[in-house]
Design goal:
The structure holds 2 protein chains of 2 kinds. In chain A, 21% of the residues are buried. Chain A contains 4 helices and 5 strands; from the N terminus they run αβαααββββ. In chain A, a hairpin with a 2-residue loop joins strand 3 and strand 4. By secondary structure, chain A is an alpha+beta fold. The longest helix of chain A has 11 residues, at 25-35. Helices cover 15% and strands 36% of the residues of chain A. In chain B, strands 1-3-4-5-2 form a 5-stranded antiparallel beta sheet, covered by helices on one side. Classes of the chains: A alpha+beta, B alpha+beta. At the A-B interface, helix 2 and strand 2 of A face helix 1, helix 3 and strand 2 of B.
Amino acid sequence: MPLLTPELKATIGRQLPPARAEVTRREICKYSVATGQRLQRFIEGDEAPPMFLFGLFMPILPRAQVGHDGLPPDSGLVPELPLKRVMAGGTRQTWFRGIYPGDVLVSRQTLVDLFEKEGAQGPLIFAVVENCVETEAGAPVMTERSTRIAR
Amino acid sequence: MVLSEVHAGIVLPERTFRPDEVQLFMYNAAIWNSHRIHYDQPYTTGEEGHPGIVIDGPLQGDFLTQLVLEWVGEDAALTGFEYSNRKAAYIGDTLVARGQVTEVRETDREVEVELAILNESGDVITPGKARMRFHQ
Protein backbone atom coordinates (compact mmCIF):
# COMPACT_ATOMS: atom_id res chain seq x y z
CA MET A 1 0.00 0.00 0.00
CA PRO A 2 1.81 3.17 -1.11
CA LEU A 3 2.07 6.03 1.38
CA LEU A 4 2.02 8.67 -1.31
CA THR A 5 -1.55 9.16 -2.47
CA PRO A 6 -2.39 10.50 -5.94
CA GLU A 7 -3.25 13.82 -4.25
CA LEU A 8 0.24 14.05 -2.73
CA LYS A 9 1.92 13.00 -6.00
CA ALA A 10 -0.09 15.72 -7.77
CA THR A 11 1.82 18.36 -5.79
CA ILE A 12 4.98 17.55 -7.79
CA GLY A 13 5.71 20.53 -10.01
CA ARG A 14 4.26 23.20 -7.79
CA GLN A 15 6.29 26.35 -7.20
CA LEU A 16 6.67 29.14 -4.70
CA PRO A 17 6.34 32.71 -5.93
CA PRO A 18 9.80 33.95 -7.03
CA ALA A 19 11.86 35.67 -4.31
CA ARG A 20 14.09 38.64 -5.17
CA ALA A 21 17.05 39.96 -3.22
CA GLU A 22 19.76 42.58 -3.67
CA VAL A 23 23.35 41.73 -2.79
CA THR A 24 25.31 44.39 -0.90
CA ARG A 25 29.00 44.56 -0.06
CA ARG A 26 28.16 45.09 3.61
CA GLU A 27 26.11 41.87 3.80
CA ILE A 28 28.93 39.95 2.10
CA CYS A 29 31.45 41.37 4.60
CA LYS A 30 29.27 40.35 7.56
CA TYR A 31 28.88 36.85 6.17
CA SER A 32 32.60 36.54 5.48
CA VAL A 33 33.57 37.52 9.03
CA ALA A 34 30.87 35.25 10.50
CA THR A 35 32.16 32.23 8.60
CA GLY A 36 35.88 32.89 9.04
CA GLN A 37 36.71 33.43 5.36
CA ARG A 38 40.41 34.02 4.67
CA LEU A 39 40.36 34.96 0.97
CA GLN A 40 40.70 38.71 0.47
CA ARG A 41 37.99 38.93 -2.21
CA PHE A 42 35.44 37.59 0.28
CA ILE A 43 36.70 39.55 3.33
CA GLU A 44 36.54 42.80 1.38
CA GLY A 45 33.16 41.96 -0.12
CA ASP A 46 34.30 42.05 -3.75
CA GLU A 47 32.63 38.65 -4.21
CA ALA A 48 30.35 36.55 -2.01
CA PRO A 49 31.37 33.10 -0.75
CA PRO A 50 29.10 30.56 -2.48
CA MET A 51 27.19 29.53 0.66
CA PHE A 52 26.22 33.21 1.16
CA LEU A 53 23.25 32.28 -1.02
CA PHE A 54 21.84 30.11 1.78
CA GLY A 55 20.75 33.17 3.74
CA LEU A 56 20.04 35.59 0.91
CA PHE A 57 16.42 34.57 0.41
CA MET A 58 15.49 33.86 4.05
CA PRO A 59 12.01 35.31 4.62
CA ILE A 60 11.91 38.43 6.81
CA LEU A 61 8.68 38.16 8.75
CA PRO A 62 7.08 40.07 11.63
CA ARG A 63 8.06 38.66 15.04
CA ALA A 64 4.49 37.45 15.64
CA GLN A 65 4.77 35.07 12.67
CA VAL A 66 7.95 33.42 13.97
CA GLY A 67 7.26 30.24 15.95
CA HIS A 68 8.20 29.25 19.50
CA ASP A 69 11.18 27.39 18.02
CA GLY A 70 12.36 30.61 16.38
CA LEU A 71 11.59 29.40 12.87
CA PRO A 72 9.32 31.01 10.29
CA PRO A 73 6.31 28.91 9.23
CA ASP A 74 7.05 26.25 6.62
CA SER A 75 6.76 27.57 3.06
CA GLY A 76 4.23 24.85 2.26
CA LEU A 77 6.08 23.84 -0.92
CA VAL A 78 6.50 20.28 0.38
CA PRO A 79 3.03 19.01 1.37
CA GLU A 80 2.33 17.52 4.78
CA LEU A 81 3.61 13.95 4.56
CA PRO A 82 2.26 10.81 6.23
CA LEU A 83 5.69 10.21 7.86
CA LYS A 84 6.58 12.84 10.45
CA ARG A 85 10.27 12.49 11.33
CA VAL A 86 11.94 14.75 8.79
CA MET A 87 15.71 14.85 8.21
CA ALA A 88 17.74 16.97 5.84
CA GLY A 89 19.11 14.80 3.04
CA GLY A 90 21.77 16.30 0.85
CA THR A 91 22.19 19.43 -1.22
CA ARG A 92 23.72 19.40 -4.71
CA GLN A 93 24.60 22.64 -6.47
CA THR A 94 25.71 23.56 -9.98
CA TRP A 95 27.39 26.96 -10.27
CA PHE A 96 27.42 29.16 -13.38
CA ARG A 97 28.87 32.43 -12.08
CA GLY A 98 29.96 34.17 -8.87
CA ILE A 99 27.88 36.57 -6.75
CA TYR A 100 28.92 40.23 -6.56
CA PRO A 101 27.81 43.40 -4.76
CA GLY A 102 25.06 45.09 -6.73
CA ASP A 103 23.65 41.82 -8.10
CA VAL A 104 19.88 41.53 -7.95
CA LEU A 105 19.07 37.83 -7.80
CA VAL A 106 15.84 35.90 -8.19
CA SER A 107 15.17 32.48 -6.63
CA ARG A 108 12.53 30.09 -7.97
CA GLN A 109 11.76 26.99 -5.92
CA THR A 110 9.92 23.99 -7.34
CA LEU A 111 8.96 20.66 -5.81
CA VAL A 112 10.49 18.42 -8.47
CA ASP A 113 10.02 14.95 -6.98
CA LEU A 114 8.23 13.06 -4.25
CA PHE A 115 8.88 9.32 -4.00
CA GLU A 116 9.07 6.53 -1.46
CA LYS A 117 11.49 3.71 -0.77
CA GLU A 118 11.58 0.85 1.68
CA GLY A 119 14.48 1.47 4.08
CA ALA A 120 16.06 -1.07 6.43
CA GLN A 121 13.94 0.28 9.29
CA GLY A 122 10.74 0.98 7.41
CA PRO A 123 9.39 3.24 4.68
CA LEU A 124 11.04 6.51 3.70
CA ILE A 125 9.63 9.40 1.70
CA PHE A 126 11.96 11.64 -0.30
CA ALA A 127 10.97 15.19 -1.26
CA VAL A 128 13.26 16.93 -3.75
CA VAL A 129 13.15 20.72 -4.10
CA GLU A 130 14.93 22.55 -6.91
CA ASN A 131 16.05 26.12 -6.37
CA CYS A 132 17.07 28.03 -9.51
CA VAL A 133 18.86 31.30 -8.84
CA GLU A 134 19.29 33.77 -11.70
CA THR A 135 20.19 37.40 -12.11
CA GLU A 136 17.28 39.74 -12.68
CA ALA A 137 18.33 39.77 -16.36
CA GLY A 138 17.92 35.99 -16.51
CA ALA A 139 21.57 34.82 -16.41
CA PRO A 140 21.88 31.55 -14.46
CA VAL A 141 23.83 31.79 -11.20
CA MET A 142 23.22 28.49 -9.43
CA THR A 143 20.85 25.55 -9.54
CA GLU A 144 20.42 23.46 -6.41
CA ARG A 145 18.56 20.27 -5.56
CA SER A 146 17.88 19.62 -1.87
CA THR A 147 16.36 16.44 -0.52
CA ARG A 148 14.20 16.10 2.60
CA ILE A 149 13.74 12.59 3.95
CA ALA A 150 10.71 11.65 6.08
CA ARG A 151 10.55 8.42 8.06
CA MET B 1 48.37 26.70 -9.50
CA VAL B 2 47.75 25.35 -13.01
CA LEU B 3 45.84 22.22 -13.97
CA SER B 4 48.98 20.37 -15.06
CA GLU B 5 50.20 20.44 -11.44
CA VAL B 6 47.04 18.73 -10.14
CA HIS B 7 46.58 14.97 -10.00
CA ALA B 8 44.23 12.50 -8.34
CA GLY B 9 45.31 11.69 -4.80
CA ILE B 10 46.53 15.18 -3.84
CA VAL B 11 45.50 15.89 -0.26
CA LEU B 12 44.33 19.47 0.38
CA PRO B 13 45.75 21.32 3.40
CA GLU B 14 43.30 20.55 6.21
CA ARG B 15 41.68 23.24 8.30
CA THR B 16 40.36 23.15 11.86
CA PHE B 17 37.24 25.02 12.95
CA ARG B 18 36.06 25.60 16.53
CA PRO B 19 32.80 27.53 16.27
CA ASP B 20 31.90 29.35 19.49
CA GLU B 21 28.85 31.28 20.69
CA VAL B 22 30.00 34.55 19.12
CA GLN B 23 30.64 32.97 15.73
CA LEU B 24 27.25 31.22 15.76
CA PHE B 25 25.54 34.48 16.73
CA MET B 26 27.24 36.33 13.87
CA TYR B 27 26.51 33.52 11.39
CA ASN B 28 22.83 33.20 12.25
CA ALA B 29 22.42 36.97 12.25
CA ALA B 30 24.10 37.15 8.83
CA ILE B 31 21.82 34.49 7.32
CA TRP B 32 18.76 35.74 9.29
CA ASN B 33 18.12 32.45 11.10
CA SER B 34 16.47 32.71 14.52
CA HIS B 35 16.12 28.96 15.24
CA ARG B 36 16.64 28.70 19.00
CA ILE B 37 18.85 25.58 18.82
CA HIS B 38 21.69 27.89 17.74
CA TYR B 39 21.66 30.21 20.81
CA ASP B 40 19.21 29.13 23.54
CA GLN B 41 20.80 26.41 25.67
CA PRO B 42 17.82 25.59 27.99
CA TYR B 43 15.46 25.37 25.00
CA THR B 44 17.91 23.29 22.93
CA THR B 45 18.59 20.71 25.64
CA GLY B 46 15.19 20.76 27.34
CA GLU B 47 12.80 20.96 24.40
CA GLU B 48 14.73 19.63 21.41
CA GLY B 49 16.79 17.04 23.26
CA HIS B 50 20.24 18.07 22.01
CA PRO B 51 23.24 17.85 24.36
CA GLY B 52 24.29 21.41 23.51
CA ILE B 53 23.97 24.38 21.16
CA VAL B 54 23.86 23.06 17.58
CA ILE B 55 26.39 24.18 14.95
CA ASP B 56 24.45 24.99 11.78
CA GLY B 57 24.65 22.39 9.01
CA PRO B 58 25.08 24.95 6.19
CA LEU B 59 27.96 26.55 8.15
CA GLN B 60 29.74 23.21 7.86
CA GLY B 61 28.94 23.26 4.15
CA ASP B 62 30.58 26.69 4.02
CA PHE B 63 33.69 25.32 5.78
CA LEU B 64 34.00 22.71 3.01
CA THR B 65 33.80 25.38 0.30
CA GLN B 66 36.50 27.37 2.12
CA LEU B 67 38.81 24.37 2.04
CA VAL B 68 38.65 24.03 -1.75
CA LEU B 69 38.50 27.74 -2.56
CA GLU B 70 41.58 28.49 -0.42
CA TRP B 71 43.40 25.64 -2.11
CA VAL B 72 42.81 26.97 -5.65
CA GLY B 73 42.94 30.69 -4.77
CA GLU B 74 42.29 32.74 -7.90
CA ASP B 75 43.21 29.89 -10.25
CA ALA B 76 39.87 28.09 -10.57
CA ALA B 77 36.13 28.65 -10.17
CA LEU B 78 33.65 26.48 -8.31
CA THR B 79 31.30 24.76 -10.78
CA GLY B 80 29.71 22.16 -8.51
CA PHE B 81 29.30 21.54 -4.79
CA GLU B 82 27.35 19.07 -2.69
CA TYR B 83 27.19 18.26 1.00
CA SER B 84 25.07 16.33 3.43
CA ASN B 85 24.77 16.84 7.21
CA ARG B 86 24.75 13.31 8.61
CA LYS B 87 25.34 13.91 12.31
CA ALA B 88 24.96 16.99 14.53
CA ALA B 89 27.88 19.01 15.88
CA TYR B 90 27.81 21.16 19.01
CA ILE B 91 29.56 24.23 20.37
CA GLY B 92 32.81 23.10 21.93
CA ASP B 93 33.43 20.51 19.19
CA THR B 94 36.59 20.81 17.15
CA LEU B 95 35.80 20.15 13.50
CA VAL B 96 38.40 19.25 10.89
CA ALA B 97 37.77 19.85 7.18
CA ARG B 98 39.64 17.55 4.79
CA GLY B 99 39.74 17.09 1.05
CA GLN B 100 41.39 14.96 -1.59
CA VAL B 101 41.46 15.22 -5.38
CA THR B 102 39.65 12.24 -6.89
CA GLU B 103 39.64 13.09 -10.61
CA VAL B 104 41.28 15.48 -13.06
CA ARG B 105 39.61 15.96 -16.45
CA GLU B 106 41.93 17.76 -18.85
CA THR B 107 39.24 18.00 -21.56
CA ASP B 108 37.08 20.43 -19.60
CA ARG B 109 39.86 21.57 -17.16
CA GLU B 110 37.78 20.30 -14.23
CA VAL B 111 38.92 18.73 -10.98
CA GLU B 112 36.76 16.72 -8.57
CA VAL B 113 37.52 16.88 -4.87
CA GLU B 114 36.05 14.67 -2.16
CA LEU B 115 35.45 16.55 1.10
CA ALA B 116 34.57 15.79 4.68
CA ILE B 117 34.05 17.43 8.06
CA LEU B 118 35.16 15.14 10.88
CA ASN B 119 34.35 15.51 14.57
CA GLU B 120 36.76 14.83 17.42
CA SER B 121 35.89 11.13 17.39
CA GLY B 122 36.97 10.96 13.75
CA ASP B 123 33.42 10.45 12.47
CA VAL B 124 32.62 11.97 9.10
CA ILE B 125 29.68 14.16 10.06
CA THR B 126 29.40 16.15 6.81
CA PRO B 127 30.65 14.51 3.60
CA GLY B 128 30.77 16.55 0.42
CA LYS B 129 32.19 16.96 -3.08
CA ALA B 130 33.33 19.94 -5.11
CA ARG B 131 34.05 20.47 -8.78
CA MET B 132 36.45 23.24 -9.81
CA ARG B 133 37.21 24.55 -13.31
CA PHE B 134 40.77 25.75 -13.72
CA HIS B 135 41.46 28.86 -15.80
CA GLN B 136 44.73 27.40 -17.16
